[in-house]
Amino acid sequence: MAQQSEALAYEPRDAILEAAAWCFMERGFNATSIDDIARQLSATKGMVYHYFDSKAELFFEIHHRAMDALLDEVRPVASSALPASQRFSEMARRYVKTLIVTRHYQRTVSEAVQMVLRSSTTETQRQQLTSLQDRRNHCEALFLSVLEQGIEEGSMLAQRPRIAIKPVFGAMNSVISWYHPREDETPEQLDQLVAEVVDVALKGVMGSN
Amino acid sequence: MAQQSEALAYEPRDAILEAAAWCFMERGFNATSIDDIARQLSATKGMVYHYFDSKAELFFEIHHRAMDALLDEVRPVASSALPASQRFSEMARRYVKTLIVTRHYQRTVSEAVQMVLRSSTTETQRQQLTSLQDRRNHCEALFLSVLEQGIEEGSMLAQRPRIAIKPVFGAMNSVISWYHPREDETPEQLDQLVAEVVDVALKGVMGSN
User: Fold this and answer.
1) Residue-range domain boundaries for chain B
2) Where is the HTH tetR-type domain (chains A, B) (predicted)?
3) How close B203 comes to chain A (CA, Å)?
């Protein structure tokens, strides 16, 4: 499986995943057929099946890439030498921006995971879901550990860090459901929006300095 | 339609809705049958159909009650005489607590609304969905208007209130997906949890006093 997380929608596999993610986002996972995905690509159903066995396989690969995109951005900052509160802010900025930029992947995940969980029956699928859950937990654990370091350093605060991290993630993740790009949105306007969201989302765990 | 929002699971309609909400939460809307709901009630399918024509009708009534429960709690505070920042905090406390207490209703809504939206075809259902959307917007508008008053009073802050309110709601709404009651949780512990969530969720729009 290719590990490139973005901007490589030229390889057939990548193009198929891009098309599938958009279809899942617009129509929902259940309502999307392999035919719809092929049509979106101006390709044949046979071409899609040449690369992916099923809609479930597409979903799992989309989920993996959605998590790769987030972890690739957040992980290097988590282990950098900056003070914890600065690391936390930069991780949050990258996390929210990546959610927005890869929203067709992220929204697919958030909508489909419940459905797949409930209807999935094969042992392999269940193992894949567990591994995906682990990666989501890993992302939250990175933030939690930096929060705990920030509390130790005195620059961050939380009564119970494990509780406090939940509304922080809720605030950040909310962009998946409400963000819609304005037609004429500039990169600067997007960065400004990300900064405003991060500011509101993090203040509850930032020291009052 | 009865308007009682809670603690009245004794009338048949209420008992059916309670059972349906739990089933939808545990199994998902799609995977739940009227048979499952009847079984949960130790009643017959015929009894359920005596009160509700379809699963969709149950869903709409659950959604209405979920919104009633939130609006009934939040609305009186929004128009009270307290300073805006205190009103906002109290609205948030009631909102989060109600989300938790009525989580089987709220989780049904958040999971099923996308699915129903996509598969619903009848004109009546579409009208109902629009009216439900209006009520969700109304709840957010109440918070937004108090935030704007708080900014005017100088006790609250936001660069763009319409943006800032989104992560605040994301933080509050997150309880629907992560809260699970501990077996021995006391009412005081629940209130403490609500206070911690509200504290983190709101600090981003509270003045630094």
Assistant:
1) 54-205
2) 10-70
3) 5
